[in-house]
Specification:
Blueprint lengths: L2 H9 L6 E8 L2 H15 L5 E3 L6 E10 L1 H15 L5 E11 L7 E8 L1 H17 L12 E7 L5 H11 L5 E6 L1 E8 L6 E9 L5
Antiparallel strand pairs: 1-3, 1-8, 2-6, 4-5, 4-7, 5-6, 8-9
C-alpha cells in the first residue's frame, strides 16, 4: 500500500494538494447490511445526498488538503503510532441526526463496543497531528457512520418517520478493527472517490 504514496510522488512533479483523512473502513458484509436497511429511505423524495455503500466508513480525523510532503510526514507519524496499538471490537446500531432533530443535517448509524479505546486512539491521532503542526478539530469526536447529508427540509418529517421504522433494532452487529487507514478523497460530480494511501495493522494482543 505504501507504493500508492510513491506513485503520487512520481505523478505529481508539481505541488499538488491531496485531500486527506484518517479512517476505519468497514468490512464489506457490514456495509452491505447497512445498505440493505437504508435502501427504502433512498427511495423517499427527501432532499438527501446519500453516501454510497462502498464509501461507508468511520472518520477519525479529517485533515483537508495537504501537500505531498505533509502526507509523507503524516504517514510516518501514523505508522509509528499504530505499531503500539491493538485491534478492537466495535458494535453498530441505532440511528440519529446531527446536530439536532430540530435542525438535522446528517443522518447516521451509531457505534458502540470498545468505544473508550476508540476514543483513546482518536485522541492520540489528534495529538500527534497537532504536535506536527496540523490544526486540531474544533468539534468533539462523536463516533458514527454517516448515511446521508440532509440538504433541505423537503419531506424531512417523512424521512425521519420512515427512518424510525426502517432502522430497527435488527440493524445491529459488530466488527473487528484490525487496520487504520490513511485515505485520499477526490471530489467529483458523482460523489467522492476514496482511495487508501496506506494502512497500519493493529496488534491482535487486545
Amino acid at each position: 500500500m505504501r507504493s500508492r504514496l510513491i506513485e503520487l510522488k512520481k505523478k505529481n512533479r508539481k505541488e499538488k494538494k491531496i485531500r486527506t483523512f484518517v479512517a476505519v473502513l468497514l468490512p464489506d458484509a457490514v456495509k452491505a447490511k447497512i445498505s440493505e436497511f437504508v435502501r427504502p429511505l433512498r427511495k423517499l423524495p427527501a432532499d438527501v445526498k446519500w453516501v454510497e455503500e462502498e464509501n461507508f466508513h468511520l472518520t477519525l480525523k479529517f485533515l483537508g488538503e495537504l501537500t505531498e510532503a505533509e502526507v509523507g510526514k503524516l504517514d510516518c507519524l501514523l505508522a509509528g503510532l499504530f505499531t503500539r496499538e491493538n485491534a478492537f471490537l466495535l458494535d453498530y446500531g441505532g440511528w440519529g441526526v446531527f446536530p439536532s432533530r430540530e435542525n438535522p443535517r446528517v443522518l447516521w448509524i451509531g457505534l458502540g463496543g470498545d468505544i473508550d479505546y476508540l476514543q483513546e486512539i482518536q485522541g492520540k491521532v489528534e495529538d500527534i497531528c497537532a504536535d506536527a503542526g496540523f490544526p486540531r478539530d474544533r468539534k468533539k469526536f462523536h463516533p458514527h457512520i454517516t448515511l446521508g447529508r440532509i440538504r433541505s427540509r423537503g419531506n424531512l418529517e417523512v424521512l425521519l418517520r420512515e427512518a424510525q421504522n426502517t432502522l430497527p433494532s435488527e440493524l445491529q452487529g459488530s466488527f473487528l478493527v484490525e487496520r487504520i487507514y490513511l485515505m485520499e478523497s477526490k471530489l467529483s460530480r458523482s460523489g467522492p472517490l476514496y482511495t487508501p494511501l496506506n494502512f497500519y495493522p493493529l496488534s491482535r494482543g487486545k
